[in-house]
Amino acid sequence: MGSLGGGPSLLLALLIFISSVSLSLSTSSWIVRTLPGFDGPLPFHLETGYIRVDEERDAQLFYYFIKSERSPDEDPLLVWMSGGPGCSVISGVAFEIGPLRFDVKEYKGELLTLVLHPYSWTKVSNILFIDTPIGTGFSFARGSEVYYGGDVKSTKQVAKFIRKWLDDHPQFFSNPLYIGGDSYSGKISPIITLEIVKGNPSGKQPLLNLKGYVAGNPFTDAKFDDNSFVPYSFGMGLISEELYGFMLSNYWANNDTVREALHIQMDTVEEWVRCDFDVPYVQDIPSSIPYHHILTTGGFRALVYR
């Protein structure tokens, strides 16, 4: 029998090629230098992309990654999710802790104007914003069957996402890692944190440099809390209708030029909505209180705020 020309070196090259193809099929990312509605090039590093978290249904979570404007090599890496479940993380990018804001005063029914947010958390930290669970924002699963999510499933998918994203961005492995979210994701953030804690000693290398978690205005336990401040404020006429459905974000994210700039995959999300409360999702972890207790008594940092 004749030998394969090139021997071990050819085999090694073939394995590397197969590995790279496999990686490209499970992750994809792009650097975004300009955005429709913003005047000039973006003054910060923005990357968007997808990471597959369920191979069987080709379920992919969409993300926005923004480097710290101070010292990205040393500053913390904060993973951030919005509430719902079913609310897009554009809420975090453009309404809360991100570097952009919609200019409401300049809106005249045309393409929205974007302005810089001077108090963005990206001034001091790298932030990885994730549309989760599947069906939220620009995250999607292929096929005609309904994709069901839940607290347990979403927790494992986000933990898998973080590991795969860091494998693709190894320069951030040593950065202090924090898991954060607000509203319903404030309930999920300590659960994901504990999932990572359990996964760290399992032999996966390198270990994640996990330091703690952040929970903003968090849902914790239905018996103890009910987040009704915003609906109450709207009902009392304290905030406008535009601010209450965050309607401007819908106009922006459904614009074709915006989708093209963000590298949104065609035929995945027909209409973007900020919060889709019809996303099939099972709230199968009734309380996050035990998770808070385990983490805080275990020496992890926690920031819980309203």
From TrEMBL:
Family matches, as InterPro entries: AB_hydrolase_fold, Peptidase_S10
Official protein name in the record: Serine carboxypeptidase-like 3
Organism: Acorus gramineus (Dwarf sweet flag)
Swiss-Prot/TrEMBL keywords: Carboxypeptidase, Hydrolase, Protease, Signal
Signal peptide: 1-26
Family under the similarity heading: Belongs to the peptidase S10 family.
GO BP annotations listed: proteolysis; secondary metabolic process
One Pfam entry name: Peptidase_S10
Record GO terms (molecular function): acyltransferase activity, transferring groups other than amino-acyl groups; serine-type carboxypeptidase activity
